[in-house]
Design brief:
- The complex is a heterodimer of chains A (419) and B (386).
- Chain A has 16 helices and 15 strands.
- Chain A is globular and about 70 Å long.
- Chain B is mainly α and 386 residues long.
- Chain B folds into three domains: 34 residues; 65 residues, no CATH class; 224 residues, MetI-like (MetI-like fold, Orthogonal Bundle).
- In chain B, a hairpin with a 5-residue loop joins strand 2 and strand 3.
- In chain B, helix 4 runs parallel beside helix 8, helix 4 runs antiparallel to helix 11 and helix 5 packs across helix 8.
- The chains are: A alpha+beta (419), B mainly alpha (386).
Amino acid sequence: MKHLTLTAGVLLASTALAGSAIAQTELSMWYHGAGNEVESAILNQIIADFNESQSDYTIALESFPQGAYNDAVQAAALAGNLPDIIDVDGPVMPGWAWAGYIAPLPIDEAEFADFLPGTKGIWNDTLYSIGLWDAAVALVTRQSYLDDLGLRKPTLDNPWSQDEFMAALDAAKASGDFDFAFDPGMAWTGEWYPYAFSPFLQSFGGDMIDRSTYLTAEGALNGDEALAFGEWWQSLFEGGYAPGTSQDGADRDTGFNEGKYAFSWNGNWAALAALEAFGDTVFLPAPDFGNGPKIGAASWQFGVTTASEHPEGAAAFIKFATQDKYLAAFSDGIGLIPATASAAAMSKYYQDGGPMADFFALSEGQALVRPVTAGYAVVAKVFEKALADISNGADVADTLDAAVDEIDADIEKNAGYSN
Amino acid sequence: MIFPSGSGAVPGPDLPQTDEKVTIMQREKSLTRSNGAGWGFALPGFGLMVAFIILPFFFAIWFSLTNQRLISPNPTQFVGLSNYTQLLSVGTILLEPERDENGATLRDDDGEIAYPRLRNFTRNNPDYPKIQGMREWFSWQTGPNDELKRVILAKDVVFMRALKNTFTFVIIVAPLQAGLALLLALLINQRLRGINIYRAIYFMPVVISIVVVAFLWRLIYDGNNGLLNNLLGAISFGVIEPVDWLGQTSTALGAIIGMSIWQAVGFHMVIWLSGLQTISPTLYEAAELEGSSKWQTFRYVTWPGLRNTAVLILIVITMQAFGLFAQVDVMTNGGPLDSTQTIVFQAIERGYGKQDISGGSAISVLLFLIVLSISLIQRYLTRERS
């Protein structure tokens, strides 16, 4: 009997040894950036570095085209085939956390203390995902336009007021040099609308949803501030300042660089092309409509799924990937805003005096994440349609009322998106 | 269902006249045996049809009676017909004009009679419980001096507009497309040198993906320097101002109708053509001998010969037209101001975009019922009268 135990013990020990010798646990990871060579190269480099740096885990990457990525994750979740690590778009994260796709990130939030607020995916006071970069939007124009039109250059500390902004548009329109004074980007349907335009609403003092409870949009999206925003929004199109929903997508992409628009509301991803077109391109902060200047925040972030059997390994990779040198590499490669100031200092575009350093300051100073609720998918859709309708001349109060009703009905239908 | 079964005069394979019983018994034996094999061969296709057409069909009916979501941790609950009442509820209210102290009606800046805002009645107003959360669908003036305003309200105005747009689309597209296709088929049904080139040209848009076609037509319809505006400007020497075809409520649906007719006309032309070529040439020769005019030949020889083809084409176009989606998705997204919302676009927008599978399913079921009843009516109207 003793002999047997001993044998069994030896056997067990040897298997365990052998196990640890060969078993690098493989962790699967999905990423939305298939088709972008630079992006893939950087990510592959990070994975290769991680695989070499330790012996417990190897990461196996699978990339999807962005358009099909969310579908793939949802299908995998329904089929129970989620990988260990996924990346998730900031505003979608609460929905996926609520649905049980992703688990709280097993890393102490304090580790990311110096990260830009928009890069942290926090829902219900819990950190679920962390981003290596953020994106920011600015009012793009040329110094020469400002000079010719006799306009003050707004700064972060002293942005344009609504009156100054409209005066600038009037001046640009009156000059006759442009097809339109202002290009908000109506051709970019989808997430662009809530991402780029809801900060205007917030600057007016309204919001897409009441963020104190996340249970209703009443008062936030159809209150007096929201009505003021809606009237202003409509005046942009009825006054002939901005191209409407039928704007050609090509005009959106290249119109500013071809001199068709005096001001363009655009993101840091388009900044390089604008700088190449005009050397004197400047990136101005958002106008202050009464409640401070605001821009949207949160881009793609990494998280660990509930399906992962090795969340500590997945977390180790995410921690590894959030080193400054990789944040800077992504920034240099595809122009994104690095998540930390120290990484920004290492980067080509965002270091002090770099061509896009303004965006880092914008992201740090004005950024506000979109409503952090699992109901965001519906809120975003409803908001997009409301803004498109208002720009096309729909009655502002009725449209916003209808939007509120639809958002509230959806929240009720989902039991408050609470658990 | 579409083709009436043959008159029974089709000659079968030659049966041997002798030993009839024995042969038939043997035949039955081999028939049952090969029947099993036949089912075996049919199984993959049949299985796929069950999995991807028949099962989803019943799923849709079931989901439309629940609160099923695309992603949700909450359990699915049976909710009865509430998805349908949400879609189809309508109400009405009679608005009195705003009056000053003397009882005279107030008018707004444009001289129109001023009415109180509907939101005073439809939002948080317990005096009007039946119309809470409803929106104006359409309205008209009524009463003495046309001072009152009768407003028809709907719980889901967007869906109502989608219904109206889809029916408009079908009613215009079905006859126009069928007629145009017949015209092209008659033109092409001639023995001319190089006629195949024309056949290919007319058929080409059918082969190209509708999504690609829609993208191209978005460029054609562009409001500033699209092909259509340039063309109209050129032939009118600049008299016709550029029109923002897809950006105006008055032209957007028309633009989509025109483009859709153009895209699929070639397909129906080919069906008409096959119908034309089944008409025996001897009939035409006889008509010619009788000295009938071109119109008479068409009216009394060609048209009766195309009867079944016509029924088929009408039903196919109607069903396709009810499924209008890709053009809207690519070109207008349902806008401007819901002027191009359609039933299928709404089903997908809700079921997928807003992750409300139950709402999308309810729309799909309604669409099925609409198409089914219209097909039955068409069948009845075009039945063989003996």
